[in-house]
Amino acid sequence: MAQGIQLVSPHELPDRLRQVFPYQLFNSAQSKCFAALYQSTDNMVVSAPTGCGKTAMLELAICKLVKDHKSGEFKIVYQAPTKSLCSERMRDWEKKFSHLNLACAELTGDTSYQEMNSVRNASIIITTPEKWDSITRKWKDHQKLIQMVKLFLIDEVHILKDMRGATLEAVVSRMKGCNPDIRFVALSATVPNSEDIAMWLGKNGSEPQLPAHRQTFGEEFRPVKLQKHVHGFDGQSNDFIFERILDGKIASLIHKYTQKKPIMVFCLTRKSCEGTAAILAEWWNRQRVVDRAWPAPTERIRVDRKDLQDMVASGVSFHHAGLDSQDRLAVESAYLKGNISVICCTSTLAVGVNLPCHLVVLKGTVGYQGGGGRPTEYSDLEVMQMLGRAGRPQFDDSAVAIIMTRKDKVVKYEKMMSGQDVLESTLHLNLIEHLNSEVGLGTIKDLYTAERWLAGTFLSVRMRMNPDYYNLDGVQPGGDTDQQLRLVCERDLKLLQDFQLVSPDQTFSCTEYGNAMSRYMVSFETMKLLLSLPKFSKTEEILQLICQGSELQDLRLKANEKKVLAEINKSPFIKFPIKGSITTTPQKISLIIQAQLGGVDFPDIKNASNIKKQFATEKCVVFERVQRLVRCVADCHAYDRDAISTRHALGLARSIAAEYWESSNLQLRQITSIGPQTNRKLDSKGISSVEKFASLDTAAIERLMGRNPPYGRKMLDIVVGFPLLTITAEVQGILKLSSGQNPKVKLKVCLGYSNNKIPVWNKKRPSLTLMAETSDGTLVYYWRGNISKLEKGLDIRFIVELCGPGDEVTFQIACDEIVGTVQSCKVKPDVPESAFPSPKSVQRSPKSAEATGATHQKEADEFGGEDFSEKELIEAVKDADATTDYGSDTFVDLDEIKIAPSSTESKKPPTAETLDSYQMANGRWSCNHACQGGNLRKNGQVCKHKCCAEGLDKPRKLKKRVFIVQSTRKLCRSQPLPSCKKSHGCLVKREDIDDTETINLADSHLPVPYSNLAPRKYRKLHNLHTKVQEDKNVRVSQQKPRFEYASGKKADLTFMKDSHLDDDDDPFGTIEDDLPPLDSLIGKQHRAANGLKPCEDGLPIGNNATSMENESASIDAAMMELDDNMITSLRKSPMPQLDESFENRLFDFEAFDDGSHKKDTNDEGFSSPLLQHTLARSQSPQQVSRRRRSVTNPPLPMKRPRSPSPIAASEVKCRRLTKEEREVKAEAIQEEPIKLEVATTQEAEKPPYPSWVSEMDQEFIESLSGIVTFVD
């Protein structure tokens, strides 16, 4: 019996559970809670002072769960506010519950696959509220894990009133919604409103409206009585000056309350610790031996730091994170032995090391929170932890705690120390972030479920009890609490919808931006900033933006840091230097990041050592927070299909994770044993990457680094786990789509690695990210997964829509946290230009049509095209050519080409009357125009269509009207990257296309020529041309012609006239106003296209007797096929310099026959396209008939070799051979048959050499054979 409570023995437990409690009896507090903890499954809240044995109460709840679930299919979650408490509980329970096969796992760092595997295998999960919040925000990925949780233990639940309490409140409320069968056991320090916590948790899952079981214990249950004193001092100045005031008061307070027992003094900063220790050591040395507050050391303490050596001789030391590890261990060991009696430390020692004492002094109540640069008031949890160091149960029965603070804070800390400080909720301060998370989890689906979720929080309980404490923006104080909660929900959900974080539908769901905000735990204000990042942002823009996040603003820029930062900014290794002076916190954060990534040495400035240590501490905080923000940027822009911003964000995230730039030679520093000097030495030898380093053998490594064996083998064992990724891609097929759609190609990418086994780097298997982008910066594929999925190779197939024939798809894969692993490849699909739809038509604005209406009326052409501008007609012709079915004989008339309506007009095509075709009196067929048969056109004018007056050769098929629809491809936030439901990846969704066909590109290796895909008329004409003469590239002179056909003037072709023609003879007729006969402009090549085969003398011979008669009928059709460049070239005068191609066109060498011509000028065999018809008109019928009779069936003799160039042509003597020379040449040719090779090459016979050639070297002459023609 103790304090009126019957004590309980652990022997009431089963034998296997009894070993957890190594003592004979439970204490009074534990005995009073035994029945509620071990004999019931209801929720429970225990409020008791420090030292009451609350940890054993949690262990009793664990034993109850083990007894009820003998199968072991359960999980237990223990949640503590600090990592140090989690580590302490991990070490303790790992030993206590090992005989029960209850494995423990600590989950406090960043989530990794190894940690998640350990969590899955563990029965007891020890974690912090922030870490469990990140796990439960993705509870759908870990649904089985969360459903197995049967017991949830909450230590130090009184942190609800701190800023971190909102996370704890949200996590517990979420767990209540995910699994109603969970049992909650919460432990708290002495608080006056523990019943509110019991009401919040509820009795159990079936009766949540009833409060949980509650037990409250006062200070009388504390085993070591604690005397608490709060001393207030005047101080209106800043914290540093106020600390100087406390330095003069602390010695007298210690002398007053000490009993020559161990003392611990908590100070504001590291420098304050050192200064306070020096003051106390000096004060102790001045005192007489009998008056000293603590005894002298009994033995010498060995430390390396010089200033610490003088202090430990007086029994005083300081302790903080900046102290060397050996000195720190020496100080802790001497303190436990009693050789050191006073330790001046920072608040981190209160939770990091278990060093109990008799007297605790808080020299000030402010400190640096979370590594920030701005001193703030200690939280209640930190104060209670520091005061909890007072009392040594094995040595003392009492202890003393002193708080030194300002006078206006005295009442606050007196209530805290007496347990009268009421717990209040802080969820309303960041409610919008937690609402977004619950929407993403599906807990909140509409306004009603949002109100119901908020009603189950601790905030709802306290607002009903103390509504005046909560001043909510946009909500009027007073009134009904439920109405206030409803207004809060509406306000925050409206803000989430305004910034596209939550869908605007009545049924709420998170957008990809909202999911990214929840996944990376980004504050609402920072998320608004990240969403303002423009498209196609580079690394510098991303870095500048994330440095402005609200998560980083507590790192204050100090005045003494500006000089150091200015020197760092001057370093050439700073990739993006700050312009101007450094005056803001974001600039400081940017330089801290770049200094680490660029390997910048700290400036050698006097008294800058403390700043260097401070930067090292802040760097850890900055890199942890910035990493989350950069990954959020990458996911948001991947959803926007912005490949450029995504690629740069991933590169920056990879660099921050590895702490070195991706493209620098510092990636060797990722190997732990390689420092700055070794890195520079390897870089000078050309070893600038880990991959190159891994390719070396052991001897080369030892030689380069100047080390002895087995150093090389150890280094290779480290780098063998460096991932060597591989990637290949190929096009598997082209999807045939309906007209008007961009073609799509099916791609296949193969991922793998060249390592012998699954790479493991930094004791974990790295994660990967794959992205694919097109040439215009559009992200078409995004995937994320673990490298273990590549063990047997991973093939990914997806479909990509192309925008143009030159589009390329670039693939890039890299590890998320390792630099130097980027691998990429490119694929260029071979899609012909004809597979793409026509460009968008020119939209005519009403203003331009109204302004140019009069001009159109005056300049109406004979085809009645006055309703369209010239540009519109050109665009309509192009679109008609692209949309016409060339497999049929019908054509699309320009009147039936409709310009696509604007977005404001109706998209329904207008209906128009079409007439059936009938046979006319002349035997031809009528067209389908409404104006045929002498009717007026729509504008009231007389019809001038030739088809309406003369008819068509055959009836016209009725076709649907062609509407040119503008097809654009826009990239905006409203068109996200398609994704599929796969873990760790975002795959493009494969759509079922009914009208598509997959083409196997393996069957067609060569590109399809344009002549096979061209319109039908082009193919027919091309076939005729290729039968007559091979296609040859002709380069037409681009000089301005002396005569233009369109000018209407008389043709000036004097260079073509022969000597027998008079100056007055006009080969084209005598009427100047008429156009010249088209016959004179049609050459041999064009006559072949109309069914005429060329003759050796240049005159056409028809295929039948009526070919000449029908020649004029096809002249107009042939003229339409001539483009402007061809017509212009036909009218040009001879230029001073002509190239070989033009000479060959002007003089038809192939038709030139040496042995069948006479000396007459008209018999020269000239076949110039411009003179064929002119020569024919100048000859008499007898000459023409004689020339026709001279045509022989045997093959024509070979022509002489062509001149290679205009310059060489001027050096060759050209003349007509005499009759005797021709006979000699013909006899030489008949002696050796002519050998012709079809479709490849043609070898000319070796001509006879003149007599003067025999005087020269024969070997030299033979070498010139076939190149030079020798004549007399």
From TrEMBL:
Reactions catalysed: Couples ATP hydrolysis with the unwinding of duplex DNA by translocating in the 3'-5' direction; ATP + H2O = ADP + phosphate + H(+)
Task: Tell me what this protein is called.
Answer: DNA 3'-5' helicase
Name a biological process GO annotation: meiotic cell cycle
Record field: transmembrane: none
Region annotation Disordered: where it falls in the sequence: 829-865, 1157-1209
Q: What family name appears in the similarity comment?
A: Belongs to the helicase family. SKI2 subfamily.
Cite the InterPro entries for this sequence.
Answer: DEAD/DEAH_box_helicase_dom, Helicase_ATP-bd, Helicase_C-like, Meiotic_Crossover_Helicase, P-loop_NTPase, Sec63-dom, WH-like_DNA-bd_sf, WH_MER3
The protein's UniProt keywords, in alphabetical order, are: ATP-binding, Helicase, Hydrolase, Isomerase, Meiosis, Nucleotide-binding
Taxonomic placement: Eukaryota, Fungi, Dikarya, Ascomycota, Pezizomycotina
Q: Name one GO molecular function term.
A: 3'-5' DNA helicase activity
Q: What class of enzyme is it?
A: isomerase
What organism is this sequence from?
Calycina marina
A Pfam entry, by short name: WHD_SNRNP200
CDD domains, from UniProt? SF2_C_Ski2 (cd18795)
Domain Helicase ATP-binding positions? 35-209
Which EC number(s) does UniProt give?
Answer: 5.6.2.4
Annotated ranges, domain Helicase C-terminal: 249-439
* PROSITE patterns (UniProt xref): HELICASE_ATP_BIND_1 (PS51192), HELICASE_CTER (PS51194)
